[in-house]
Amino acid sequence: MENEFLLYVVYTMKPGCRAAFLNWVRTEGILDAIRKEDGCLRYDYFCAAEDENCLLLVEKWSSAEAQKRHMTQPHMVRLLAMKDTYIAQTHLGRLREEG
What secondary structure letter does DSSP report for 62? Predict the structure, then answer.
């Protein structure tokens, strides 16, 4: 779709925290809640094979507005509050699909 909004987030995790963070977002139901949001087309984490402290998130939304609403959801407030526990640094970027 023309209005789709594709983002990537590269997280530098605090040493040894990647698995604990991924377990937390799953067991707390946050990952499922995000994927059920209106406008969420994709929300997937990928682990770097050669860097245990690197985590990639790929998000695809039906529109920028859907992604903006996503950031205000209660489960996102919880996730953002926990970031300092697990994450040392965050880099956000936007992708543009061609096709």
Answer: S
